[in-house]
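Bench log, entry 3. Co-assembly request; chain sequences pasted below exactly as received.
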Amino acid sequence: MVMWRALVQRELQLLGRQKADWLNPLVFFLLVLSLFPLGIGPEPGMLKQIAPGLVWIAALLSVLLSAERLFKDDYRYGVIEQLVAGRQGLFSYVTAKICCHWLSTGVPLVLVSPLIAVLLGLDWQSWQVLVVTLLLGTPVLSLLSVLGAALTMAADKGGILQALIILPLYIPLLIFASGAMEAAATALPYTGQLAVLLAFLLFALALVPLAVRQALRMNVG
Amino acid sequence: MSIILAAEALSCVRQDRVLFENLNFQLSAGQVLYIQGKNGAGKSSLLRLLAGLTLPEDGQILFRGKPLSGQSEEFAEQLLFIGHHSGIHPQLTALQNLAFWSALSEQAVADPYQLLGSLGLAGLEDIPCFMLSAGQQRRVSLARLWFSTKPVWILDEPFTSLDQQLIATLEQHFLQHLAKGGLIVLTSHQSLSADYPALQAIELEYRW
Amino acid sequence: MWGSMFRWLDPYAKPETLYHLCGRLLPYLMGLALFTLLLGNIWGLAFSPSDYQQGDSYRIIYIHVPAAIWSMGAYSSMAIAAFIGLVWQIRVAQWAVLAIAPIGAVYTVIALLTGAAWGKPMWGTWWVWDARLTSELVLLFLYLGVIALAGAFSEAARGIKVASLLAIVGVVNLPIIHYSVEWWNTLHQGATITKFAKPSIDPSMLWPLLISLLGFALLLAALTCLRLRSQILIFEQHRPWVRQWVDQQQGERG
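Structure output for the full assembly:
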C-alpha cells in the first residue's frame, strides 16, 4: 500500500508537470462536441436526439487519444524495462497508471458535463443519466485505452494503430451508455443498461490490469 | 563456493544476426563478470538475457543450479537491473525519482539529501532531471545502488559519463557489495581500475 | 497430468518437424478442399431446388454461410494458437497466429461481400445494419487490428507476441460485442426491414451446404499449413536445418 501510494504520487507529479496531457483531451472533447452543431445544424430537437451518441463518441475519442503517450516516456527512459526485470512493482505500477489516467481524463469529463448539457440542450433528467453513464463508463474507457497504449508501446507506428486495435472493443460500451441516455430521454427505464455498464466495469477491472502487465512485459521482452 | 548464476551454451540472435553462440560462464557470490566488446557486439543483449527480459535462442541460464525460466519470480527478487537507459524520468526531480525507486524496492532511504549529496548532487535535488547533465542523471540513477539490498546487480555501462572521482567512489561501493557476498555483472568501455578479488572477463566479438 | 497427456505433441512444437508435417499434409488437404468445394457448390448452385420465397438468390448461402461460420472459427483457432503460444512459450503456435489472421480476414470479407450481394435482392439495398452483418464487420476490424499490430514492430518476434495477446483480448470480447450488437439491433429495428422467419431447411439444400462447410474448413486448414510453412522459413532462416533443406532441394533440382 505504501508502494502504491508512492506510485500514484509519482503519476500525479508527472500530471502536474505535463498539464497538456490532461488539458488537451478535455479541450479536444469540447471542440469535437461543438463541431457537430456546425456540421448538422443547430435545431434543438435534432441535437437532443443525437446527443447520447455524440457525447459518447467524443468521450471515447478523447480518452483514447490521451492514452497514446501514457507509457512512451517511461519506455524510452528505461523505467518499464527495469520494472519488468524487478517484477514485484509492475502490477502496482499498472494499477496506479490506470487510476491516474481515469482521474486525469474521465473525471474532468464528468466535471464539464453541465456545460455539455447546456450546449446540447439536455434537460435535468438526461444530464443526471449522462453523469451516471460517464461515471460507470469512463473507467472502462481508461482501462481499454491504457491496454491499447501498453500493446503499442514499443511499436514504430503509434496513434492511429492504437485506435484501430481498441475502438472495436469500445462498441459494447458505446451501445449501452448511449442506450441508457436514449432510454432516459424517452422516459423509459434505463437501470438495466446501467447494470450492464457496471458489469462491464467490473469485468474490465478484473482482467485488463493483468493484460496490461502482460503487454508491458512483451514490449520490453 | 556455490554457483549462483551460470550460463550454459548460451546463444542470442537479434534481427536475424547471431550476436554470440555457445557462451558459458559460472559466477558465485563475491564475483564480478566484466563483459567487454565493441558497439553492437551484443553486450546489452547478453545483460537483458541474464536479467530475464528476453529468452535465449539456445542454451540456458541457471540460477542456483536450476533453469532460470522456472523460477523467474525468485530470481527477480534478488535482482537489481539498471539497463542501457537510466530509468530516470526527466520531468521529475532527483528526489522524486529516488522516491519512486525506493518505493518500488520497498527500501526507505534514511536521508535522501545526504545520499544525493555524497554523489555530488548537493543543491540539485529539487531540479527536474532534464536540467541535469548526462553524468548527473547517471548519478541519480546509480543512487539506487546505495540503498538496494538485492545481491545480484546487473549494470549496463555504469561508468558512462561519470568523472574519475565518482568512478572511484562507485568501484569502492562495488567492492563493499562483493565483500557482503553480492554478485555483479557489468559492461564497460573503460577498463576497471579497482582491485577485484575475483574477476571474470568475457570479450564479445562483433560478428556479421 | 496435463504435461504427460500432451507429451506426444512435443515433437511438433519443433519448427523443423512441423514444417515437414505441414508439407506432407498440404497436398491432401488442398486436394480434399478443392474436391468438397466443387462438389458442394456445383450441387448447391446447379442441382438443389430453388427456394419458394427467395427463388435462386438464396443459393449464395453455399458461399456466404460457410465463409461467415469459418471467419469466426478462424478467429477462435487463432486465439487458441495465441493462448498456447503465450502460456507455454511455443513459438510455432505464435507463428500460427500470424498464419491464420489474413486467411480469417479474407473469409470475413467474403462473408461481408456475399452478405451485401444477398441483401440487394432481399432488402433492396447493399447494406443494412443487421445484427449479424454488423458483428461480421466488427470481426473484420478485430482481424485488421491483429494484423496491423503484428506488423508494427521492427522486432518481428515481439510484434507477434503482442498481436497474440490482442487476439486473446479480442476473443474474450467477441461474445460481448456480439450480444451488445444484437441487443442494439432489436432496439433500432427499422420498419422497412422484414425479418424472415427461420425456415427449416430441406435436406436437398442442407447436404450441399454441409459439404461446402467442410470444404471451407479444409481450405482454411490447407492455407494455414501453406502460410505456416513460409512463416517457419522466415523465422528460422538462420538455422542450419533450413540451409540444409534448401541445399537439398536445389540438389534435387540439379
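Confidence is low (pLDDT under 50) at residues 190-197 of chain C. Chain C is about 75% helix and 0% strand.
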